[in-house]
Amino acid sequence: MAVPVPPTRGELLLEVRGLVKSFKKRRVVDGVSFDLEKGETLGLVGESGCGKSTVGRAIINILRSMSYGVEISGKVVYHLPSGPVDLAGLSRSQMRPYRSDLQMIFQDPYSSLNPRMTVRQIVEEPLKIHTKDGPAQRRDRVAWLL
Q: Cβ distance 67 to 60 under 8 Å?
């Protein structure tokens, strides 16, 4: 009888442990934990108002700049080749180097997708902002991505 081999874990990319977001002493997100490995896709699913976007905003560390009196605890560890970084404790300026790696796609298509832009332009926009690639390099990368 063959012994099943447990699946091997991939390379850990993001580790969220005990994420809590409180506002005016009311917990909005309470103890969220998960791992995301390189190459994986993670979707948060739930009813409207359950905290999906709040979890995303906490991960990319923009809640403190959006609202006064927000309290966030827990760990959001981004694993890089140079070593792990706990994003939860970083200031706005300390977060800047990681902004091009971590982005949210909001569930409202009207706030995410501009109907006056082609899909190619929408995909190219972050490359214009976060890379130093020229137009030809961006065009090639967008073609590859699409």
A: no
Task: Note whether 18 and 75 are within 8 A (CB).
Answer: yes
Domains of the chain: 12-97 (3.40.50.300)
For the chain, the residue count is 146
pTM of the model: 0.67
CA–CA dist 124, 126 (Å, integer): 6
Strands 26-37 and 70-80: unpaired
Q: Are 105 and 53 in contact (CB under 8 A)?
A: no
Taking 50 as the threshold, does the pLDDT of residue 94 lie above it?
yes
Based on the number of CB atoms within 10 Å of its own CB, is 127 exposed (0-12), middle (13-18) or buried (19 or more)? middle
